[in-house]
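Re: beginner question about structure tokens

> Can someone show what the tokenized structure looks like for a real chain? I only ever see the sequence side.

Sure, here's an example I had lying around. Input first:
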Amino acid sequence: MDIDVRPLLDIRENPEVPPFGPGDTVRVHLKVLEGDRERVQVFEGVVIRKRGGGLNSTFTVRKISHGVGVERIFPLYSPLVQKVEVVRYGKVRRARLYYLRERIGRAARIKERRVTAQGKGQR
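And the corresponding structure tokens:
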């Protein structure tokens, strides 16, 4: 019983996901199923990590909600992720921003990276 896995591994770029990286503030539109209803939930925060390069690639977004830090891991190629908007591009020198977990208030700010119209999203 031979199974051809090549069509299954074909990665299709989601046109609703622009190029982004750690330090960028993103707004993720996620489809949530509640019983027989379906709605879109928006999660906005700072990308603190991106991992993987294939179908299993994920990114972690951190936000502060009512004074409590909330982190959520999103699969990049999930059909539940409807859209990702980049709110602002951040200027960081690390790929993993775990140090933001210990920082609060102004200490957790990230400088903004100036992006020209032509080089939008270029890292």
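Each token stands for a local structural state, so reading them left to right follows the chain. The chain has no helices and five strands.
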